[in-house]
Design brief:
Oligomer: single chain
Number of helices: 17
Shape: globular
Largest sheet: 6 strands, mixed
CATH superfamily of the largest domain: Periplasmic binding protein-like II
Strand content: 5-15%
Distance between the termini: 121 Å
CATH class of the largest domain: Alpha Beta
Structural class: alpha/beta
CATH topology of the largest domain: D-Maltodextrin-Binding Protein, domain 2
Number of domains: 2
Number of strands: 15
């Protein structure tokens, strides 16, 4: 091979290496090597394609359903709660609320649902039933979910029934106190110028109204031990508390015996005996006048007086708009006894099921209902009851009927929280059964009192 041939081979090799190198450096797209200005050459076109695969994962959050169970003070309360539920679901699209209303034996049914493994996630718990639910481990400690700053917004006296061993098991949704509701028009027809000041006047006014107007003067529930307690305490009896069998001696107190007999006889004498004598009754229960409960009986103007709580106020406004507060009816404090005035205070928590599969979602709903917005919209604006959170006392949106009941606080010597001890709920039901039997004339007041003593001894022994 001559020098000239060798030189030509080297030159071609160098040119080819240059073309390949240019194609590799480009990395992507299309590159073209420059044409030499001398000698004949081949243009090499190299195209490299790079594909990048992008994977996008979309996680769809599964909707959680929280079951919420409560009782109802009537259609108005159910409508108000459903409105709040709708608002919550709009703000929390991944949480659905299933609202269930239980109309009979609420707490007993909730406890039974735990045994069947179908208890709701959120449910009402009355102060009287709280110790039973806490002892059974049914309630999730709210102090493990809520910030202390949130808890501190509530009235401390309303929290007491829901505490045990340093834990708080619920926050009250609202509260109410008993007051006397009276029909001003029926009072006027009967010639009565003001509501009764004492328990004796209450009964006397009921008789006069029945005689003058033909309408019963007073409607009460059969039994309902808690409605009787202010009568006993205002006349000097100690507040009832039943923690051990010996506490049954409360019923041996002379004031208790006297006032309980009087309360039973309101219906026994005022309804049963009067009708047996062919006379019109001056005391009835709601069913006697075709009503489902006291609010209905009062709103239909079938009775002149009832003793009820703040929950009756929005019901009257909604169901009986032509029955005007201030014009047709009004509110007064409960009558006084020989030792002053007393009333009952009622409160209910939104308890969270200790075995809920979604405790944080349940708390989110509870916090919404109980928080400032819920209290403002559901309690203050809707006039449902009294706010359990501090700071709304002088709110311009508070209904005048509620403001008036709050104004009675200074007149009461005792405001009694509905709680008689660790088995209040069970005792309340059995006390009320005995009282109702005596009111119907099926046993004497003395026999009812003895039965109630035995109930305490049986329930709290062992």
């Amino acid at each position: 091979m001559g020098k000239k041939t060798l030189y030509s081979l080297i030159l071609v090799s160098v040119l080819l290496l240059g073309v390949v190198a240019a194609g590799c450096i480009g990395g992507g797209g299309t590159t073209t090597s420059p044409s030499p200005t001398t000698t004949t050459s081949t243009v090499v076109k190299t195209e490299t394609q790079v594909q990048t695969k992008t994977t996008t994962e979309t996680k769809v959050q599964e909707k959680v359903f929280v079951r919420f169970a409560g009782w109802s003070a009537g259609e108005t309360e159910m409508k108000n709660y459903q409105k709040m539920i709708d608002e919550f679901e709009k703000e929390n699209p991944n949480i659905g609320i299933k609202y269930e209303v239980i109309t009979q034996m609420f707490h007993e049914n909730i406890l039974a649902s735990f045994g069947a493994g179908v208890a709701p996630d959120v449910f009402y718990v009355d102060s009287a039933w709280a110790p039973i639910f806490i002892d059974k481990g049914a309630l999730y400690p709210i102090s493990d979910l809520a910030d202390k700053s949130f808890i501190d917004k509530f009235y401390p006296f309303l929290l007491e029934p829901f505490k045990k061993n340093g834990k708080l098991y619920g926050l009250p949704k609202d509260w109410s106190m008993l007051a006397l509701f009276y029909n001003k028009k029926l009072f006027e027809q009967a010639g009565i110028t003001k509501p009764p000041e004492t328990w004796e006047e209450l009964e006397q006014d009921a008789k006069i109204i029945a005689e003058k107007t033909g309408k019963p003067g007073l409607a009460i529930y059969l039994g309902n031990f808690n409605r009787y307690v202010p009568v006993a305490v205002s006349n000097g009896a100690p507040k009832p508390w039943f923690e051990k069998p010996e506490d049954a001696s409360w019923f041996d107190n002379p004031v208790v015996k006297e006032t309980l007999t009087w309360y039973i006889n309101l219906y026994k004498v005022g309804k049963v005996d009067m009708e047996n004598q062919g006379k019109k009754p001056y005391v009835v229960q709601p069913g006697d006048v075709g009503a489902g409960w006291l609010g209905d009986a009062f709103g239909k103007q079938e009775v002149a007086m009832v003793i009820s709580g703040n929950w009756m106020i929005p019901f009257l406004a909604d169901q009986f708009p032509d029955f005007k507060y201030g014009e047709d009816w009004d509110i007064a404090p409960l009558p006084a006894g020989k030792s002053g005035r007393a009333t009952m205070a009622y409160t209910v928590i939104l308890g969270i099921n200790a075995k809920s599969g979604h405790p944080k979602d349940a708390w989110k709903f509870v916090e919404f209902i109980l928080g400032p917005k819920g209290q403002k919209d559901l309690v203050v604006k809707a006039g449902q009851t009294l706010p359990s959170m501090k700071g709304f006392e002088n709110d311009p949106d508070m209904w005048p009927q509620h403001k008036k009941t709050l104004s009675f606080m200074s007149q009461y010597d005792n405001v009694i929280i509905f709680l008689w001890g660790p088995k209040s709920g069970t005792l309340e039901g059995k006390f009320s059964d005995a009282m109702a039997a005596a009111m119907r004339g099926e046993m004497t007041p003395e026999e009812a009192i003895q039965t109630m003593k035995e109930v305490v001894q049986q329930e709290l022994s062992g």
